[in-house]
Amino acid sequence: MNPKSRNSRREMSKALSRVANASVSETLEEQKSIPINNLYRIGVTGAPGAGKSTLISHLASKRVQRDRKIGVIAIDPTSPVSKGSLLGDRIRMETVSDNPNIFIRSIPSRRAHDGLADNTADILWSMEDKNFDEVIVETVGVGQAEYSIRSLVDTVVLVLLPESGDAIQAMKAGILEMADIYVVNKSDLPGAEQMAGDIAVTAARKSGVKEEWIPKVIQTSNNNIDSFRALDEAIESHRIWRSEKVNRDEERRARILYQVQGLIGRRIEELIEVLTDSDLDKTPKEIYEILIENLSKFPK
Amino acid sequence: MALLGKRILIAKPGLDGHDVGAKIIALALRDAGADVIYTGLRKSPLYIARVAVDEDVDAIGLSILSGSHKEIVVQTLECLNELDASDIKIFVGGTIPRDDYEGLIAAGVRGVFTA
């Protein structure tokens, strides 16, 4: 790297922090226009301990071999007690951590409870003009209901473990319906084959519409690095399918709606935090009215 | 919380395989409100500086129990300087003899904290 590019990497890094740390009012001020979407977005989600971070490191090294610049946004939970966080995803990404074509940013979830972080949508927007080709978003370890990632990315990869048979049952009505690619990770463990088969059946059954994407099921293992090639290829075929079939206008509207919902939700939390004791001695209806009135003012 | 919104990198440079202390410090900083990133074991000063830039941290805590703290500190500061990030503060912990504190501070370390 030459001195100039080092310098610009730091500038880019600082710019991302500004977006990540922005309050609702700062975020709204910054939104001048809707950026053109060129960045391909891959979301990786799954339960805690499923192997998301390690999988991303293998995936990112495959993606850069396609001559692409990759950004990784790795989200870890904020402690509800201290409001601090331990952002541990990067430890699992050591092998790609100082690859000049891979940029990894760890961010805390802050107020968000949907598997993502505050301002995730704006962070992704701000990455549009920063020379990335693709971004991989790692969610917080999720249960069955946190599927907001679906609203923000192009390809959703759900990472599962072979022994999570009962979890699969529980997930049927939630995140399990949302993925484009299912990964049975740690597939050297017993039960992987069986589970991959079960998911393939469930995933195929949802397909009623002609030309719908039929989710792919892939088995991966850290003991077989080559197994991640299949994941890389599955993402590529989904990307091609999307480019032909997806209505980009509809998708853009859905993303904007998610973004607006997030901003309003956060704004309400900001307003709740500044309620006084005497406000809270009122009835729920009165407090509701106070909040609605404050919400109608532009945030300062 | 004193450190709310601060980003801190806890790093283990050099050939030193003991990180219990580093992890305890990471947890204590989280409990004080900071967002803490840990590098994992046996990282080079250049690796640590690059991670600090990409993660846009406010400070780096170097945990060193190998005895080579002087060399490691100087190299890390040089690497930060190279990456145009000399404003990122460095603090040091581990097995640092009291006689070495002054030298480390003179080199640019903001604080030395040992058990």
CATH architectural name of chain B: 3-Layer(aba) Sandwich
The general outline of chain B is: globular
CATH topology of chain B: Rossmann fold
**Total helical elements of chain B:** 4
3D architecture notes:
The complex is a heterodimer of chains A (300) and B (115). In chain A, 45% of the residues lie in helices and 14% in strands. By secondary structure, chain A is α/β, with parallel strands linked by helices. Chain A folds into two domains: 3-246, P-loop containing nucleotide triphosphate hydrolases (Rossmann fold, 3-Layer(aba) Sandwich), CATH 3.40.50.300; 257-296, no CATH class. Chain B has one domain (7-113): Cobalamin-binding domain (Rossmann fold). In chain B, strands 2-1-3-4-5 form a five-stranded parallel beta sheet, with helices on both faces. In chain B, strand 3 (59-64), helix 3 and strand 4 form a beta-alpha-beta unit. In chain B, helix 2 packs across helix 3. The longest helix of chain B has 14 residues, at 69-82. Chain B is globular, with a radius of gyration of 13 Å. The A-B interface holds A 3, 6-7, 9-10, 13-14, 16-17, 21, 79, 81-88, 90-91, 94, 97-98, 103-108 and B 1, 3-5, 7, 26-27, 29-40, 46-47, 50-51, 53-56, 82-85. Strand 3 of chain A pairs parallel with strand 2 of chain B, so a sheet runs across the interface.
